[in-house]
């Protein structure tokens, strides 16, 4: 039996409460996550050409996207593109693959564009709206972002045939706001920036995940929660990493509760690598109706 399974049994958990794998079942609805999800829904149902979701690494963007896909109504056709990159034309390949639309491997850009346009018109005729989600979109080049903007020109009379959701790290927001991307920025009808959790929210977050995993929610003392928040900077993914080690250390010490001593032991052993963290990022930034600064 693995040590992970042993600590599950020891604490009475059904699942690992702090797994790093995005799981919408564990989604904690903090106030800013509620607002971010509302913006995603607003973007879809207002037929926004582009919806933008940004945030530091590990703030929950991918989990929100997964929740959106899980809850999608039947009249929406989603295509998910993760870590897209490449030159002109390759983005069309990513999109066609995400939509499970077949095309010849040697097809030209014009041929692939026509295939995509025909598919969008077919979906529109069937009452379907097509939404392409680009996760980790900060990996796109400025040329790639411009190519995506051109895709939003595809329409039928006054109806949008394709909508884009761009999700990525803060540099994506900087790219969209750059002077060369003014036309793209004007297509962003809704945007939200996810920041780290404050101390109170971190405590609520821990309790939520512990209970969702089958625990009591009281496996961490308030003092331990406060220390974890400070060390992880309120970033959910880092909180998860540190809490996982803390549970393992508590199990080894045969302690049913993670206290300050447990957290300190983990930190002293230097097994928690949080890496670079930006100084005092904003807790949340919400915008709707475009970006007047371009």
UniProtKB/TrEMBL annotation:
Lineage top rank: taxon: Bacteria
InterPro entries from the UniProt entry: AAA+_ATPase (IPR003593), AAA_22 (IPR049945), ExeA_AAA_ATPase_DNA-bind (IPR052026), P-loop_NTPase (IPR027417)
SMART domains: AAA
GO molecular function terms attached to this record: ATP hydrolysis activity
Pfam (any one): AAA_22
Domain AAA+ ATPase: 47-190
UniProt cross-references to PANTHER family, sorted A to Z: GENERAL SECRETION PATHWAY PROTEIN A-RELATED, PHOSPHORIBULOKINASE _ URIDINE KINASE FAMILY
Protein name: Type II secretion system protein A
Organism: Roseivivax lentus
